[in-house]
Amino acid sequence: MLIGNTPEQVLSVVPLLFSLCGNAQAYAALLACRAALQMPAEPEADAARECLLQLETVREHAWRILLDWPGLLKRQPDKTAVAALLKIDRQFKACLFQDGEAFIPDSRLQIDAPRLQSLLAELTGLIDQTIFDGGLSGFLAITDEAQLRDWLDGNSALSAELLNALYRWNWLALGYSDVACLPELDYAELHRQLQNEDLSAFCRAPQWQGHCYETTPLSRQQAQPLIAELQSRYDNSLLVRFVAVLLEVAAIPQGLTASEGRAYAANCIGLAQVQAARGLLIHRLALRQGRVYDYRIVAPTEWNFHPDGVLAQGLKSLQADNADGLRQQAEWLINAVDPCVQYRLVLTPEN
């Protein structure tokens, strides 16, 4: 759909193609176009855009928690809370950019600080109420498993119910794999790898220097004391993954610390990396006579759901007494890794 378009047309089309992580997709497209055209950076506007990416991460996590986690616990989701979340989310662009146009080359900053702070407070309150049942600040103060167990004791919050179920069923270490977290990708090396390999194959099933990696919220949260301590006991299992998501959704609205989107240019080729909710997102475009003749996107799902990747390896490690138990374990693991598309789970009897 993007081949033959001008960069300006690309930037108008990309947000229409992606309903999930639309801000991350639009920002990656903008960075890639800007790099290919050798346009200057926009530090202040980019800082605001990166804040929008962080807020989108909160929305994506909270949305999935409110919709999917009740189903894992055999409960009905709170659709009123989901609607309130989406209503708040839609207002952030207008607080930062004129006409809410954040991801075009001539975006104009127009920051309404009081309104922005009000929305952040409203978002924090909604998350605190619906996911943590008033215990958000207590959760953020946890630094080790003993404190986590104390916080979970007698706690009826949605987040606590899910983590308590893992303890009750002894699923804490479920889904372990030896797939490591994706290291920082050097732009020059990434460009060389894409030039030397089948680009279509890389987009469908990416590897870095011959190895599969994961890029998830866990990848971003490894430095947190609670995650580091849990990983020393449970590695990259279900408990650690769910806690990492909860840490992001709880912490981001209270102190935006957006990661920096980065871009690389080489001979009318623009290569951009940004952190989307589910992990690293890569856009690569090539221009010829001012129009796109090649455009590739590598989504986090392609890393995480690689045939030899973290989910595939985690599924192979599952053990259950019956098919229903195995299906339930698989559904929890898939949800923890979190695809950005619908999936179909099929259990095949052994011959």
From TrEMBL:
Q: Which InterPro entries does the entry mention?
A: NiFe-Hase_large (IPR029014), NiFe/NiFeSe_hydrgnase_LSU (IPR050867)
Q: Which PANTHER family match?
A: HYDROGENASE EXPRESSION_FORMATION PROTEIN HUPK, HYDROGENASE-2 LARGE CHAIN
* Name the UniProt record assigns to this protein: Ni,Fe-hydrogenase I large subunit
Query: What species is this protein from?
Result: Methylomonas methanica
